[in-house]
Specification:
Layout lengths: L3 H7 L13 H12 L10 E7 L3 H14 L6 H13 L6 E7 L9 H21 L2 E6 L2 H4 L1 H6 L7 E10 L26
Antiparallel strand pairs: 1-2, 2-4, 3-4
Helix pairs in contact: 2-5, 3-4
Length: 195
């Protein structure tokens, strides 16, 4: 079993995965890992949306609607192409997990800390996927934060989709975890700053 030191340093975003189904137990392990993220006042401000097979159409349709809304002054053919391209993004992997923040309504809870908890949950989930030998990538971007995405997933106005974890079996899953992975990139200095 991989230790946490190794997991943190060898995890990579894996965007190309097999179309094979992901075991339900692996998905459940990832979701549970997410729930172990630290969060003040134990608000558990995360919501997970697991999409497989036809369930990915929910995401695809939302992405297509957003692409169409952004395609102002385009021809009908260009809009159709933009919609098709956007819809195909939902099928890049056999499983997509949407992760949203649902901040507490308690006025004593600092909203920014709710976002921090969900970002920590996402990192836990990515590390769990890596430990399970799965490929995963966290995709974000403007469409995540669009009001149409909130509507598609039944989120309140104050909630926000913070990204989608695309998940599948690594194409090179028969090889060691770090095989064919790019070498780690140099990270910024850890030198403390003087106050």
């Amino acid at each position: 079993m991989m230790n946490i030191h190794e997991a943190i340093r060898t995890r990579r975003s894996v965007g190309k995965v097999k179309s094979d189904p992901v075991p339900k137990e692996s998905i459940e392990a990832m979701l549970e890992a997410g729930t172990w993220a630290p969060n003040h006042k134990h608000t558990e401000p995360w919501r997970f949306f697991v999409m497989r097979d036809g369930g990915r159409e929910l995401l695809g349709n939302a992405l297509a609607d957003i692409a169409e809304a952004n395609a102002k002054d385009k021809s009908a053919e260009e809009i159709a192409a933009a919609r098709e391209s956007a819809m195909s993004k939902a099928k890049r992997s056999p499983v997509v997990i949407g992760v949203a923040v649902t901040p507490s309504d308690d006025p004593k809870v600092i909203e920014l800390e709710e976002y921090g908890a969900v970002f920590a949950a996402i990192q836990n989930m990515l590390l769990e996927a890596h430990g399970l030998g799965l490929g995963a990538v966290w995709r974000t971007g403007e469409p995540c934060y669009h009001k149409r995405m909130n509507e598609a997933f039944g989120l309140r106005e104050k909630d926000k989709m913070l990204g989608f974890i695309y998940l599948g079996s690594r194409i090179w899953s028969q090889r060691p975890v770090n095989a064919r992975m790019p070498p780690p990139k140099r990270r910024g200095s850890m030198s403390p700053r003087s106050a």
